[in-house]
């Protein structure tokens, strides 16, 4: 029998970000997979030294799996602007500075853009499941859209007020949380990860 088994309550969410814990726990809960967070277990937070979303998600998930002896899920996400060669990308959180001010981050994106040039961008979310034996499964979800200025709406977080998903008219900052979470990059990555998980009860 495979040594890699999932048991409810014995899956670690390898993040110290309470927002991500809530969102991922909501996605996993209906499938009967209750989780504990890396923060609750007092696990250390590894430095994000990867050069891709998947590499960072993998190193966070592996660190938590090895430290806890339990399977662990981690995510890494960000905004990629085509005209900026994919920036801020894996550095999306860092563009907000020490104060984590996303008005500053959005203005940095806007100032770096040629006003007449293309405004296309996408959000990426990498999700990795890691096992204590070092095995990992990783997927990436993506949503495409266009940047808008000035930012619109106060819902959501991060770059939401300047992102309009393809097929929508309102920005992520203007639509409800439920509408955004029904089909965003995290939800898309999650749908790709589910079939890769071993069966559980
Ligand atoms: P991480 O903790 O390194 O994955 O940081 C991801 C960063 O990307 C966040 O701090 C946000 O700035 C940005 N980001 C990721 N997903 C979203 C989203 O759904 N809306 C807005 N910003 C996002």
Which molecules are bound besides the chains?
A: inosinic acid
Ends: how far apart? 16 Å
Q: What Rg do the Cα atoms give?
A: 17 Å
What's the average pLDDT?
A: 91
Q: Shape, please?
A: globular
**CATH C-level label:** Alpha Beta
Strand content: 15-25%
Structural class, by secondary structure, is alpha/beta
Strand order of the largest sheet: 2-1-3-4-5-6
Proportion in helices: 25-40%
Order of helices and strands: EHEHEHEEEHH
**Uncertain stretches:** none
CATH topology: Maf protein
Task: Note the main sheet.
Answer: 6 strands, mixed
How many individual β-strands? 6
**Number of contiguous helices:** 5
- How many structural domains does the protein architecture include? 1
What CATH architecture do you see?
Alpha-Beta Complex
Question: What would a concise description of this structure say?
Answer:
The protein is of the alpha/beta class and 201 residues long. Helices cover 26% and strands 20% of the residues.
Task: Give a verbal description of the structure.
By secondary structure, this protein is of the alpha/beta class. The chain has one domain: Maf protein (Alpha-Beta Complex). Helices cover 26% and strands 20% of the residues. The chain has a 6-stranded mixed sheet with strand order 2-1-3-4-5-6. A hairpin with a 5-residue loop joins strand 4 and strand 5. The model has no long low-confidence stretch (mean pLDDT 91). Inosinic acid binds next to strand 3.
């Amino acid at each position: 029998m495979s040594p890699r088994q999932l048991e409810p309550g014995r899956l670690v969410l390898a993040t110290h970000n309470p927002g991500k814990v809530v969102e991922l726990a909501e996605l996993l809960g209906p499938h009967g997979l209750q989780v504990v967070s890396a923060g609750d277990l007092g696990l250390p937070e590894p430095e994000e030294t990867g050069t891709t979303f998947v590499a960072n998600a993998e190193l966070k998930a592996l660190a938590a799996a090895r430290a806890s002896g339990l399977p662990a899920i981690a995510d890494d996400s960000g905004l990629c602007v085509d005209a900026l060669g994919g920036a801020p990308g894996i550095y999306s959180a860092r563009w907000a500075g020490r104060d984590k001010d996303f008005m500053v981050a959005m203005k940095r994106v806007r100032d770096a853009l040629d006003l007449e040039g293309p405004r296309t961008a996408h959000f990426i979310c990498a999700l990795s499941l890691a096992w204590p034996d070092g095995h990992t499964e990783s997927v990436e979800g993506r949503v495409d859209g266009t940047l808008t200025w000035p930012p619109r709406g106060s819902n959501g977080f991060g770059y939401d007020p300047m992102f309009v998903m393809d097929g929508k008219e309102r920005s992520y900052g203007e639509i409800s949380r439920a509408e955004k979470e029904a089909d965003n990059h995290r939800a898309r990555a999650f749908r790709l990860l589910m079939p890769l998980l071993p069966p559980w009860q």
